[in-house]
Specification:
The chain has 400 residues and is of the alpha/beta class. Helix content is 44%, strand content 14%. Strand 10 and strand 11 form a beta hairpin. The termini are far apart.
Length: 400
């Protein structure tokens, strides 16, 4: 039997995959393979020796020469080794996770775990168990103890992505954990110490959510000791040529593709496009281009996306809603006394709430109170829509 020498990455006792590099002695070729704990058990049975060790954290590569990107790179290096909580903001696809990984890389924790938790992907009833773990027998189905993500992070970093989607009841517990640096597993009696650094990210306007009562203001201030905002790609188009070159090189290396030369006309179109999906959308376009190799088709598609589209169901609903929403001043200033005049913030909040209520209510009615369809048209998450419906005290019309 061929003997293998195996070096495996760190196991976090969660049943997840483990990175393993193994060397076949007869030809000295190196492979990167994902193996599970079950696989390791099988390999041990075959006489393959496993040696567990930590694999060094790879250096994240932030691409761009614009002034704002240079400032972000400088900031991540400067605050990387400062043990303050960091909040990263920006639209979807701008590279928030990349900045979070950079913060971890430039810290003294870089040899420790980096644990990512996507708060939007977890059902609300499972978020607490995922973050903090539970003891065996703490509820039906808890047949063994589960280690939470905070505990798995150990002395490293925990990255809470889409923190704006965290349910309100969990926000209170997270705040307590950040304040006390300790917690109890669900059903547990032993206090678990929190040693990990917390990095959070969101594509939501948390300041607005705080005003609307959707997000706790005390948690917001606790998370945003240091705030890093990543602007959308349309605001830093000077980075596009370098990003294109990077992704084309990556595609060529990963898929064994011949080099592709992008015409200047396509780069110009890229620079004028609004990029709603940001860098992720740019990478997807280039992946398609490497397969189809049809520059003209891609140019036409992007140009068409930039023009007003033909009337669709979404636009019909939006135009009807716009025509039905009153255009008069949504704020009532019921006083002429300058001393009791409302503050500009109060005026803005009242205006925003009134307009949001009217728009959401109209779209809900147009969609027959189909909340998923309404959330899609308004381009907000389903959970955020539910919060707004509750906050604005909206309810479906009674059937006659």
């Amino acid at each position: 039997m061929t003997k293998y020498q195996t070096v495996a990455g760190r196991s976090h006792d969660s049943g997840d995959t483990i990175f393993a590099i193994y060397q076949v002695r007869h030809d000295c070729r190196l492979f990167l393979q994902l193996v599970t704990k079950q696989s390791i058990f099988s390999l041990n049975h075959l006489g393959i020796k496993l040696t567990l060790m930590h694999m060094s954290f790879p250096k994240p590569l932030i691409i761009g020469q614009s002034r704002v990107i240079k400032k972000i790179i400088e900031l991540t290096q400067k605050v990387g080794d400062v043990d303050f909580n960091v909040l990263i903001t920006g639209e979807s696809g701008v590279g928030k996770e990349l900045v979070a990984r950079s913060l971890h890389y430039y810290s003294s924790r870089s040899e420790k775990p980096f644990i990512k938790v996507n708060c939007a992907n977890l059902p609300s009833e499972l978020v607490e168990a995922e973050l903090f773990g539970y003891e065996r027998g703490s509820f039906t189905g808890a047949d063994k103890r589960k280690t939470g993500k905070f505990e798995l992070a150990e002395d490293g970093s925990i990255f809470l992505d889409e923190i704006g989607e965290l349910p309100l009841q969990l926000q209170a517990k997270l705040l307590q954990v950040l304040q006390d640096r300790s917690y109890y597993r669900i059903g547990g009696q032993r206090e678990v110490q929190v040693k990990a650094r917390v990095i959070a990210a969101t594509n939501q306007n948390l300041d607005k959510q705080v005003r609307q009562g959707i997000f706790r203001d005390d948690l917001f201030y606790r998370l945003s000791t240091i705030c890093i905002h990543i602007p959308p790609l349309r605001e830093r188009t000077e980075d596009i040529p370098e990003l294109v070159g990077y992704f084309l090189q990556k595609i060529r290396m990963n898929h064994k593709k011949p080099p592709i030369t992008i015409p200047a006309s396509l780069i110009d179109i890229f620079s004028e496009y609004h990029w709603p999906g940001n860098i992720r959308e740019l990478e997807n376009y280039l992946n398609r281009l490497s397969i189809l190799e049809n520059f003209r088709e891609l140019e036409e598609e992007i140009v068409a996306s930039s023009r007003p589209k033909s009337v669709s169901k979404d636009q019909t609903v939006k135009s009807e809603v716009k025509s039905e929403v009153k255009s008069d001043n949504p704020v009532s200033l019921a006083t002429d006394d300058l001393e009791s005049f409302p503050s500009l913030k109060e005026v803005r909040d009242e205006a925003v709430n009134k307009v949001e209520r009217e728009v959401i209510e109209k779209v809900l009615l147009k969609c027959n109170w189909n909340r998923k369809e309404t959330a899609r048209i308004l381009k907000i998450s389903y959970r955020a829509l539910l919060y707004k419906i509750k906050d604005l005290e909206l309810s479906p019309p009674r059937r006659k």
